[in-house]
Specification:
This is Short-chain dehydrogenase/reductase SDR. The chain has 258 residues and is an alpha/beta fold. The protein has a single domain, classed as Rossmann fold (3-Layer(aba) Sandwich), CATH 3.40.50.720. α1 links the parallel β1 and β2. α3 runs parallel beside α4 and α4 runs parallel beside α5. The longest helix has 27 residues. The termini are far apart. The structure holds NADP nicotinamide-adenine-dinucleotide phosphate (NAP). The site of NADP nicotinamide-adenine-dinucleotide phosphate has 23 residues, from α1, β2 and α6.
Length: 258
């Protein structure tokens, strides 16, 4: 175990400007090999992002998928095991950062919206958790932390509170939170740490810059959440030891109204 390099699997990397990418950069800097799971976006953005990590001394590989589904998650973990064999890598961190939302009034919600939320936020999250936990169970208990692995879910305000246009998103986020709590209770006795992070506010990413169009918010460190600061909390979760570990963390900027 001592000679195995730690491996972090991160699902939901997007264009490299959000939380998933910030977590990948930080875990890479901290000595983890990185397996990136993300959709293709019609190009090789995930490969470019892996190249970015590798050019700064990392050991990252892209696993591009067409869409999230339990079968795809299962075959992707098989591909990850081939690329990062358990004989040289120990998968010790898994982050399910992916989310699907449709922000619309309930009467405008389509069956396809609901199906996609179930697919991305629930069934694929179950499949991701299953693969991560099966891998963690192969690990020895770490001498440093007393655990075999850390599984982290990115949540949102909608994980605990529905609102007027969030039925699709909030139902999916509530489900992920419930899943994480059940897993934390079931697998704690195996020294597997499961954590859920409620991100309670707007994260600054290319996507949020695009739709908010609010330069004042972009500049305001009191009101925006930075992906790099969320990533720092994820590293903190991964480094927590078994005598005091967190199931749920909430993160918000200083001036968030809550
Ligand atoms: N942005 C915010 O203001 C905010 C606020 C609170 C909570 N959150 C949560 O924080 C997490 C990270 O979000 P982020 O904004 O920082 O961006 P992010 O890290 O890039 O992560 C979101 C990822 O979810 C995947 N995704 C997005 N739309 C999807 C769709 N329609 N179907 C399937 N997958 C989709 C994308 O991954 P791939 O394209 O790589 O597959 C995307 O990169 C998410 O779980 C989000 O719900 C965000």
């Amino acid at each position: 175990m001592a000679s195995l390099r730690p491996l972090a699997v991160i699902a939901g990397v997007g264009n490299g400007s959000g939380t998933g990418a910030a977590a990948a950069r930080l875990f890479s800097k901290n000595g983890y090999s990185i397996a990136l799971i993300g959709r293709s976006h019609g190009g090789d953005s995930l490969k470019k992002f892996a190249d970015e990590l590798n050019s700064s001394g990392g050991n990252a590989a892209p696993f591009t998928i067409q869409a999230y589904s339990p079968d795809t998650i299962k075959s992707t973990f098989a591909a990850i095991r081939e690329h990062f064999p358990p004989s040289s890598s120990a998968l010790t961190v898994a982050i399910y950062n992916t989310a699907f939302g449709a922000w619309k009034s309930f009467l405008d919600v389509t069956p396809e919206d609901v199906q996609e939320s179930v697919n991305v936020n629930i069934t694929s999250a179950f499949a991701f958790s299953r693969e991560a936990i099966l891998a963690f169970k192969q690990n020895e208990i770490s001498k440093d932390t007393g655990k075999r692995g850390t599984l982290i879910f990115t949540g949102a305000t909608a994980s605990i509170r529905g609102n007027v246009t969030t039925s699709v998103f909030s139902a999916g986020k509530h489900a992920k939170r419930a899943l994480s709590q059940s897993l934390a209770k079931e697998f704690g006795k195996d020294n597997i740490h499961v954590a859920h992070a409620i991100i309670d506010g707007g994260i600054i990413t290319d996507r949020t810059r695009g739709y908010r169009k609010d330069p004042e918010w972009e500049k305001d460190l009191d009101r925006r959440l930075d992906p790099e600061s969320i990533a720092a909390s994820y590293l903190y979760l991964a480094n927590q030891d078994r005598t005091a570990w967190t199931w749920e963390l909430d993160l918000r900027p200083a001036h968030e109204k809550w």
